[in-house]
Specification:
Blueprint (H helix, E strand, L loop, with lengths): L16 E3 L1 H8 L4 E4 L2 H6 L4 H14 L4 E8 L2 E4 L3 H10 L5 E3 L4 H6 L4 E3 L1 H11 L3 E3 L10 H4 L4 H8 L3 E4 L8 H10 L3 E5 L4 E4 L2 E7 L2 E3 L2 H11 L6 E4 L9 H18 L6 H12 L3 H27 L7 H6 L9 E3 L3 E8 L12 E8 L1 H11 L5 E3 L1 E3 L2 H9 L9 E3 L5 E7 L5 E7 L8 H6 L1 H6 L3 E4 L4 H13 L4 E4 L20 E2 L3 H10 L9 E6 L5 H18 L5 E5 L5 E6 L4 E7 L13 H4 L9 H12 L1
Parallel strand pairs: 1-4, 2-3, 2-7, 5-6, 7-8, 8-13, 9-12, 9-13, 14-17, 14-22, 15-20, 18-19, 22-23, 23-24, 24-26, 25-28
Antiparallel strand pairs: 3-4, 3-6, 10-11, 15-16, 20-21, 26-27, 27-28
Helix pairs in contact: 3-4, 3-13, 6-8, 10-13, 11-12
């Protein structure tokens, strides 16, 4: 059955993946699914042992009422779950030209309509996209001997750092540099634990490798707890399960591996062909004992993985929704803009006289208000009648409750309230004219706007006509949001927030996924300083002015802005530069490859009160909202 999976990954089109009804149904109903690789079938074991072992692993998993999902590629189509006939096809094709497929190989194998066995890396790509949390295998790849010079490092390691999945294995293949592999896993943030081994890290064929695990768990309950907490970090768990019975002495296996390596060097075998060749040669040198050990540990890992999966799903009160369930539950009639960003309490200090910083007491006032760029935008959209969805994080404290109460006109059920972090706050210093002189704040709570938080609310993004992101969001989460929205053709509006964070997305290419941006002039200049990518700015400029204004002011604004605007607009079609009391500069890319720059002067307000949050509402500083700016912003968001 063809999967209806839209957001699998950038490598797959909707028509290139087949998900079996059993796997799809389990994901829809939040039942346990265990992924299995197919490189074991195509490159790990000879026929018919490869097919027999794969089916026996599936049988062990099914005996625990868990759905196995063997992942592979047949005729250029990704299979998530296979019938015995399909497994046999891969097993037989191992004798022909069948590819070993990691992340990098998907484009070629799919486009050429070939067969492929997915490695640990390739299997993780598909499993993670489908929302599968467990993966059972024999051993993972790692840093090859002399890898510090050759840089021959398996893609399995980096892929594990991208996926909140538990990989149950017998550790790292013995033919690799286990010590350097463990160091690399630490560097990329993968949790490594041994299972009931007194902290000894196993070496695939043997119970001991000479290295210690940082963590040791002794039961399925403890192991399930590791994966549960890894949902907060976004990286995976490598659980190393020692072989039940050692059939070969460590000295014998080490000697066989060294001999196999020497043959490999003499025959010039390189790259991804090294591992299957060495394993085959070790099996020959050990007269089949290494292969028997390999099959034995695969079955044992299937048993251990099944027990942990059952414990995990029994512990979990609510698991993240699969993409199938999300799509099924969408209300197509509802289209709510999503705002993702910061919420904080502002303590505004207003000086009532000339600001003199010489230690004297100054007359002034203080007020406490709810702020934060994301909160302000959500507030504004709500007041204009939009059913806005606001994603933010606040502490379980009085400030957090105040922020939620200030948004009683919009839905706040998706706001994350965290118990171990105080709500972000900001002290704002205003001079007697209401201009901001300085800010001091604690924005740590904004770090809780994580990728996992976005995934839990992915249904809201699917329904949204536009997603607004502010500069308080961390780069990793921002990149995930932009990537998802770009694949789903959802425009992204970036609110630059502050000069200190405005450049955050411009240190990489993620900014090229924005559809709208609204910096002030200083933020725009800061972005210009930090824009690392070479961007073409070959656009003709059409300038117009709306509603009067001073020509020298307009010309200065145009001259100081046009170069960076023309660079950015090659990827961001609409840029609105807020200019305080000088108004608004609206830049838009035209169909004839020109850039339209329109300056809208501001309206004068005699009694300014505060500029804080004014840009978020498209306000001129003062008590009342300038009608054109605020309505225009909401119209843009609604469109």
């Amino acid at each position: 059955m063809k999967g209806n999976f839209k957001h699998v990954c950038r490598y797959f089109s909707r028509s290139s993946i087949d998900v079996t009804p059993e796997v799809k149904n389990a994901l829809n109903n939040q039942k346990p699914v265990i992924a299995l690789e197919s490189a074991l079938i195509t490159h790990g074991l000879p026929y018919p042992k490869n097919v027999e072992t794969a089916l026996e692993m599936e049988h062990i998993i099914k005996s625990h009422n868990i759905i196995p999902a063997t992942i592979g590629i047949i005729n250029g189509r990704v299979k998530a779950g296979m019938c015995p006939e399909q497994i046999n096809v891969l097993g037989l094709s191992a004798e022909k030209k069948t590819f070993k497929v990691s992340r990098r190989d998907f484009p070629y194998v799919l486009s050429q309509g070939l067969n492929g066995g997915t490695t640990v890396s390739g299997t993780l790509v598909v499993a993670n996209a489908l929302g599968i949390r467990f993966f059972v295998t024999g051993g993972i790849g790692g840093v090859h001997i002399d890898g510090q010079n050759s840089l021959d490092i398996s893609a399995d390691l980096f892929e594990l750092s991208r996926c909140a999945i538990m990989v149950v294995s017998a550790g790292i293949k013995s033919i690799l540099d286990i010590g350097r592999t463990l160091e690399y896993l630490e560097t990329v943030g993968v949790c490594v634990a041994s299972y009931d081994s007194n902290g000894e890290f196993p070496a695939f064929y043997t119970k001991q490798s000479g290295y210690q695990s940082v963590c040791n768990v002794t039961s399925p309950y403890e192991a399930a707890g590791l994966l549960e907490q890894c949902q907060n970090t976004g990286s995976g768990v490598l659980l190393a399960v020692p072989i039940l019975e050692e059939k070969i002495k460590k000295t014998e296996i080490d000697k066989a591996i060294e001999n196999a390596r020497q043959i490999c060097e003499k025959q010039g075998i390189m790259g991804k062909n090294i591992t299957p060749f060495v394993l085959s040669e070790v099996s020959r040198l050990t007269k089949g004992l290494s292969m028997d050990t390999n099959i034995s540990l695969l079955k044992n890992n299937s048993l251990v993985g099944s027990k942990i999966a059952m414990e995990y799903y029994s512990k979990l009160s609510s698991t993240p929704k699969s993409v199938f369930e999300v799509k099924k539950s969408l209300k197509k009639s509802t289209k709510s803009p999503v705002v993702i960003g910061g919420s904080n309490v502002d303590y505004v200090l207003q000086v009532d006289e000339d600001l003199k910083l010489d230690g004297r007491m100054l007359a002034g006032q203080m007020k406490r208000v709810s702020g934060g760029v994301g909160r302000n935008i959500a507030d504004a959209l709500g007041r204009f009648g939009h059913d806005v969805c606001f994603l933010t994080a606040v502490g379980d404290d009085s400030n957090g409750r105040s922020i939620i109460e200030s948004l009683d006109h919009i839905k706040t059920d998706r706001i994350a309230v965290v118990g171990d972090q105080s709500t972000s706050w900001c002290v704002v210093f205003h001079d007697r004219l209401g201009d901001c002189m300085a800010c001091i704040g604690d924005m740590e709570c904004h770090k809780r706007i994580t990728i996992d938080m976005i995934k839990k609310n992915i249904d809201a993004l699917y329904q949204s006509p536009l997603v607004v992101v502010d500069g308080n969001v961390c780069p990793e989460t921002m990149e995930f949001i932009i990537g998802f929205c770009n694949e789903e053709n959802i425009p992204v509006y970036f609110e630059t927030t502050d000069i200190a964070v405005a450049s955050k997305p411009f240190y990489s290419d993620m900014w090229k996924g924005f559809s709208f941006m609204s910096p002030n002039l200083k933020e725009l200049q800061e972005i210009s300083k930090n824009l690392t990518a070479e961007v073409s700015a070959n656009y003709a400029i059409k300038v117009s002015i709306n509603g009067g204004g001073e020509f020298d002011t307009r010309d200065r604004i145009m001259n100081s802005s046009k170069d960076i605007v023309c660079k950015l607009i090659s990827h961001i079609p609409v840029i609105m530069v807020t200019l305080g009391d000088k108004g608004l500069l609206l830049a838009s890319r035209q169909s004839d490859d020109t850039v339209s720059l329109v300056h809208y002067p501001s309206q004068k307000i005699e009694t300014p009160v505060s500029v804080s949050g004014a840009g978020d509402w498209f306000q001129k500083k003062g008590k009342s909202v300038q009608p054109y700016y605020s309505r225009r912003r909401v119209d843009l968001v609604a469109e």
